[in-house]
Amino acid sequence: MIVLFTDFGADDIYVAQVKAVLAQQVPPGTPVHDLLHGVPNFDARAGAHLLAALQPSFPAGAVFLSVIDPGVGGPRDPVVLEADGKAYVGPDNGLLSVVAARARKARTWRIVWRPTPQSASFHGGDLFAPVAAWIAAGSLAKGKLEETPGLNVQFKADDLAEVIYIDHYGNVLTGLRAVNVSHSAKIEVGGQRLAYARVFAEAPAGSAFWYENSVGLVEIAVSGGSAAQMMGLRIGDAIGLV
Amino acid sequence: MIVLFTDFGADDIYVAQVKAVLAQQVPPGTPVHDLLHGVPNFDARAGAHLLAALQPSFPAGAVFLSVIDPGVGGPRDPVVLEADGKAYVGPDNGLLSVVAARARKARTWRIVWRPTPQSASFHGGDLFAPVAAWIAAGSLAKGKLEETPGLNVQFKADDLAEVIYIDHYGNVLTGLRAVNVSHSAKIEVGGQRLAYARVFAEAPAGSAFWYENSVGLVEIAVSGGSAAQMMGLRIGDAIGLV
Amino acid sequence: MIVLFTDFGADDIYVAQVKAVLAQQVPPGTPVHDLLHGVPNFDARAGAHLLAALQPSFPAGAVFLSVIDPGVGGPRDPVVLEADGKAYVGPDNGLLSVVAARARKARTWRIVWRPTPQSASFHGGDLFAPVAAWIAAGSLAKGKLEETPGLNVQFKADDLAEVIYIDHYGNVLTGLRAVNVSHSAKIEVGGQRLAYARVFAEAPAGSAFWYENSVGLVEIAVSGGSAAQMMGLRIGDAIGLV
Question: Which residue among A117, B116, B169, C227 sits deepest, i.e. has the most Cβ atoms within 10 Å of its Cβ?
Answer without folding.
Answer: C227
